[in-house]
Amino acid sequence: MTQTVTATNGVPGGDANPLRAGVASSRITDPCNVVFFGASGDLVKRMLMPAMYNLRLEDILPANYGILGFSRCEWQTADFRDGMRKSIDEFSRSGPAKDPLWSDFAKRLSFVNGSFDDAAAFKQLRAQLERNDAELGTGGNRLYYLSTPPSLFGTIIDRLDEAGLGPKNNKTGWTRIIIEKPFGTDLASARALQAEVNKVFDEKAVYRIDHYLGKEPVQDIMALRFANVIFEPLWNRRYVESVQITATETVGVEERGGYYDNAGALRDMIQNHVMNLLALVAMEPPVSPTADNIRDEKFKVLSALRPMDRSRIMLDTARGQYGAGTIGGKPVPGYREEPNVNPKSNTETYAAVKLLIDNWRWADVPFFLRSGKRMARKNSEIAIRFKGIPHRLFGETGDSIDNNVLVMKIQPEEGVSLRFSAKVPGPKMHIRAVSMDFNYGTGFGVVSAPAYERLIGDAMRGDATLFTRWDAVQQAWEQVMPILETWQSSTDETFPNYAAGSQGPASSDRMLAADGAEWRKI
Ligand code: BG6
User: Which of 75, 373, 434, 499 has its CA 20 to 30 A from that of 176?
Assistant: First the structure.
């Protein structure tokens, strides 16, 4: 069963690029079983199984591994294999599944059918895991991946424990659990979930996914800050005027109206993805790059966030909901017309928040966060806007001397861009803003692996750096709760207040204007 089928990273010229020379193999050493709960769901189909397949294709999976699907779907193992082949054919970044790699991969897939509270099904799961240990040499190591609705997380964890599948009963190997977001729907439910998780899993075994942390340019934030000398001296209140963190999308709520209408942009994006970006960009240098040292710094900076002043929430936040509009030249319906959305919904599809960090580095520097669906462009970026020059020496009348801006581009472009002033060629000292750009794809000659590939691989390795620790999750909930409560208790009569395909609601522009600032065009 340990046939080796090797492949390169699949990118022309990828390995030949001198910038990648000497990059060590990233093969995972521990054998392991990965169990996907909710195996017939969309996430497994679109993301997780293609990620597993590509980890194999890239030779990152250990030699001995097994993949188990668990769901209510009435599948047998053969159906699971067929279904997963189809999903790889359709969604894998490397194209359709190919032999001999596929047939080797398929042999390691097995399926357990059952409901998530059925003790008998968990016994079968245990039997299959033990069979895998014996036949595939998976060594008793287990990684559970909860890709089900969050309401089932607690039940699954209880059943795992009852079936002797928790860490305390595993005498031969390790047991870890990956938990999808959202981790709770507010502070109280997050705490309740944490209590359930902790009954069975120690914090060290818990890997809370925030897929933004698996994106290459997000990981590069730390490299940019702490592997260079030129940025960090300026990375503080003396030189930084404001920071803008943006995560906008052109998609609407698609098939997820039922979930989204109870969530909204603040819970869906700001509390997790955007707050994680803020933590990475604002934290102090960790004493070493270990998971806990990094996560200590993230927690510290989140705990330095100034609590929202309830009397200022309407001034320091903005919410929006999209109405009908045009995306990519095509008319699209408004949010309230989407399937499974309340036609009178008060749920925000756009959220903007101004935050302040009460510490020495950042005192009084506004951090403007925004996220929205059905916006003009998909765009995730962090923009550091530096202060203006202290004294103007150059520039003819009418020339403006723009502030320097450093932009970390997360998606769809991946790179870093620095805006600075330059002289326009000619006899006069005209000044214009120009930019220096670095692009990952052309720089390193590789296409970044999707976040889930990186994250599943890291959890199999036991590296929790890119997973959110409980203290940070709790802190982020504490920060957003006053906003959530204020928004929930008041209907926004202006909804829908931005057209699909636009730059977002005018109230959000007003929020920045109050600080003399402007949103960057998305
Ligand atoms: C998810 C949200 O966490 O992130 C979705 O639930 C959102 O609503 C998605 O569309 C955005 O992810 P990405 O990687 O496309 O920016």
Answer: 75
